[in-house]
Amino acid sequence: MNGIAARILELSSPLAPQPTGVEPVLPQIDGLRAVVFDVYGTLLVSGSGDISLTSGAAHSDAATDALVACGLPPGADGEEVVSRLKATIQADHQRSASAYPEVEIRDIWRTTLAELHPGQAAANVDVDRLAVEYECRVNPVWPMPGLRETLSALAAAGVPMGIVSNAQFFTPPALAALAGGDWDALGIDPRLCVWSFEHREAKPGRFLYDQAVARLAERGVSAAETLYVGNDMRNDIAPAAAAGFRTALFAGDARSLRLREGDPLVGDTRPDAVVTELRQILTILSLADR
Hints:
The chain has 290 residues and is an alpha/beta fold. It contains 13 helices and eight strands. It has helices at residues 3-11, 52-55, 60-69, 78-95, 105-116, 127-138, 147-156, 171-178, 183-186, 196-199, 207-218, 233-242, 280-284; strands spanning 34-37, 44-46, 141-143, 161-165, 193-195, 226-230, 246-250, 273-275. The strands form two sheets. A six-stranded parallel beta sheet has the order 5-4-1-6-7-8, with helices on both faces. Helix 12 links the parallel strand 6 (226-230) and strand 7. The longest helix is centred in the N-terminal third of the chain and has 18 residues, at 78-95. The radius of gyration is 19 Å and the shape is globular. Pfam families: Hydrolase (PF00702). Keywords: Hydrolase.
């Protein structure tokens, strides 16, 4: 386990999902050969409901504590640090030609630190650790109940698994570490994982989903043969359905469930299934009794 993963574990503690009151809808969908997941609010309980860049979570104390943990005086009060961080993100978005741009959070922190500490004061800061220190404070995460069992059952059945997620560099090690092992133990194919920070494109845009469709096609699997599981009707279900996936809305945690009623990007899109526990995915694929 690398240092980033170890630090994520140190900063993490059990976090239970909150009931949604939603009833599951569990049709057995014939012909499914693969499953692709969202991460925050689906595979991981998310304290803020999503990765902090998407949820808007920001806390002044978290910023100052993160800087101090990395051996750097804040250089400004916490509110100023957060304000500069947000302004840097906004400026990065404005420079992008994408309708749904994503940032690389390490670049954002480097720019912010250069403003807070002109000169060489910030040159020796471990930006990877700083990003983790801040994220784990503003958006604590923990494995969703049934995560390990569900992934293990799908892997044992030979079902290819992938991910399409708004994410940062710390997302893959966080998922692996919190699930209790290294990435290989998850059974998720890294070639079927599409992370927003690697492409500077974010949900709800189609780009990430189209990337996943192309990668699945290389495995001989079509989008129509793939179940996409996510907790957000706008960011997950609508664009996944538009890309040709079958879809399951994950409604297992009130913090992260996003129904987006009346959102024009959702329109009349409806999921093919609704799951309130990850294990219910096995029922949809007719694997529950195996």
